[in-house]
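USER: My hope is that you can spare some time for a protein that puzzles me. I am handing you a single protein, as its sequence and its fold in token form. Walk me, if you will, through where the backbone shape changes along the chain. The protein I mean follows directly.
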Amino acid sequence: MKAVVCTAYGPPEVVKVREVRKPSPGRKDVLIRVRAAALTTSDTRIRGLQYPPRLQLSLRVVVGLRAPRRVMGLVLSGEGESVGTDVTAFKPGDDVFGFDNRFKFGAQAEYACWPASDLLARKPAELSHEEAAAIPYGGLMAMFFLRRAGVRHGQRVAIFGASGANGTSMVQLATRAGAAVTAICSARNCELVHALGAAACVDYTTEDFTEANVAYDVVVDAVGGLKHPPSRARVAKVLAPGGVYVSVDEAMPRFTQADLEELARLGADGSLKPVIDRTYPLDQIAEAHAYVDQGHKRGNVILVV
């Protein structure tokens, strides 16, 4: 089968499509014919070893010393081809989507073999495979960090990096919770975030939101250190008394099956709209990595398998 592999840590050119052995399901596994996979910033950061020096050695030990050992990819949508003898939650023919919560990777291939107990759910019939693959990464991140921030009805919430995969989900889920959301992104994305529910949009390229005469109950950094978010000291100037600042860099998120099932329900009824910037065929994987590396994608980049 065709699969995405990294020949080394480095620029997009190290990512190749190779023929590898098709996986076989164990008794607790689901063999999935992948139809779409997300290319996330986590994928590109791992490929480029874009982590602080203190974390690079740990990453190499887990993922591979000279190059990632495994087929790449954390998020997929596809069709269950076969299931192990102990699997009762799924059957052959079920459309499924999910997130590799155990960081075993393998989503960016024609076939993937995942434990049925991993973050795997039935794909909403209302969504295409491409749309379904655009939900888990940003949606699960948004649920975890909005919950960590305690976002609730009536609050004023600012989201820095509101137009990315995490940010577009955060805008929608925070708005759905009853918060008044200010989206902080470039001007070209203001129309998008308003359509997703943001009450206001600040163009970070021309205006520093931390200098505004506004008091926010919650400020969420949805992008982390690679995008140079405002410092905690600067954000403190616009926090209301008792206000909270949360960054995606400050905690290892924990995702649950219940959250994925909730995202499936929200996607099915239209409460959470998948945002897809571009789609690429699998054999254009290097070009897709190069695009994500630019740091300006709107929502998600999806690989069509």
Observations:
- The chain has a mean pLDDT of 95.
